[in-house]
Design a protein that fits this description.
alpha+beta; Aminopeptidase; globular; seven-stranded mixed beta sheet
Length: 300
């Protein structure tokens, strides 16, 4: 069986050689995403038929492959045949592929027709927004967000620090730990997220991460971390705020984009993981698109 290796920070150069200009519509295939979740999702990789193959082994979802990265169309069928053979030997693999975007699903359908069986991965769709809209907050549909933003700037004496300024990175890590301590009903994912935040911050220069912290009345009120995936899309990896400061999230959202990513057309604010409250919050910012993801099998 093909040898799959555990993902390491040193694999970034290999991934970038396959990803090149990031052409995916979701954030799933970004190296930084895979790296910070590599232990929870048990992320492995290998090169098969000159394409980069990522395999995940999730406790809840089982094992699966992601869409091949950097494949040549003439090799696609050979790649799929190899993966199908592996699937026969892999326990707990309900789907051959997860995190499949519409373009790759169309490619599979072109090759395999009705043998391709798929379902939408509801709760896992990425929310895509117009960056300019989230910066300007203009118009009736953003009226409440603009009010929240104005409430923050008029209620508190605040200042902004780049994450590379003195001690700011360490203070963000400490803030994330306190944020977790204050949560009720801590889950494994929340605890892992705090560890992921620490890794993102400590490896920010390697992972090309931008970060901003906000202080209100002399204490940290929140911070956010993001990454430019290509000239058209930025992903917000992390956004944490203290809700005791009214309007902190509206402030973080607007100012971070304006300060760091105003030249990028779209912002990806990830999925709602099927949580109703999170879905309502994400919809309240009026996404221009939900980037769908699919779970796929091929019956041969």
């Amino acid at each position: 069986m093909t040898d799959f290796k555990e993902l390491q920070l040193g694999d970034r150069e290999l991934f970038n050689s396959f990803l090149k200009d990031y052409s995916f519509g979701t954030y799933e295939y970004a190296f930084s995403t895979l790296y910070i979740w590599r232990k929870m999702c048990r992320v492995y990789h290998s090169v098969i038929q000159d394409a980069l193959i990522v395999k995940k082994d999730d406790d809840e979802k089982g094992q699966s492959f992601m869409a091949p990265i950097g494949y040549r169309e003439e090799n696609l069928k050979l790649i799929i045949e190899d993966l199908l053979e592996m699937k026969k030997e892999i326990p707990n693999m309900p789907y051959l592929f997860r995190d499949v975007e519409e373009d790759f699903l169309a490619k599979l359908t072109d090759v395999y027709g009705e043998k391709v069986k798929y379902v939408e991965d509801d709760g896992n769709f990425d929310y895509i927004y117009d960056t300019e809209e989230l910066i300007s907050l203009s118009g009736k549909k953003f009226h409440s967000k603009k009010n929240h933003f104005n409430s923050f700037i008029t209620s508190y004496s605040y200042n902004i620090k780049d994450i590379n300024e003195h001690d700011t990175a360490e203070e963000c890590i400490k803030f994330a730990g306190q944020w977790l301590d204050d949560k009720t009903g801590k889950t494994d994912e929340l605890m892992y997220e705090v560890r992921a935040i620490e890794e993102l911050i400590n490896n920010r220069s390697v992972l090309n991460i931008e970060g901003m912290a906000v202080y209100a009345d002399g204490v940290m009120a929140g911070f956010t971390l993001g990454e430019r995936l290509n000239d058209n899309m930025v992903v917000i990896h992390i956004e944490k705020g203290d809700n005791n400061f009214r309007g902190i999230y509206a402030f973080l959202n607007k100012v971070f984009l304006d300060k760091y990513f105003s030249d990028v057309k779209y912002v990806n604010r990830q999925e709602d993981v099927g949580i109703k409250g999170l879905r309502m919050a994400k919809m309240s910012y009026h996404p221009v698109k939900l980037e769908k993801k699919y779970n796929v099998n091929i019956e041969v």
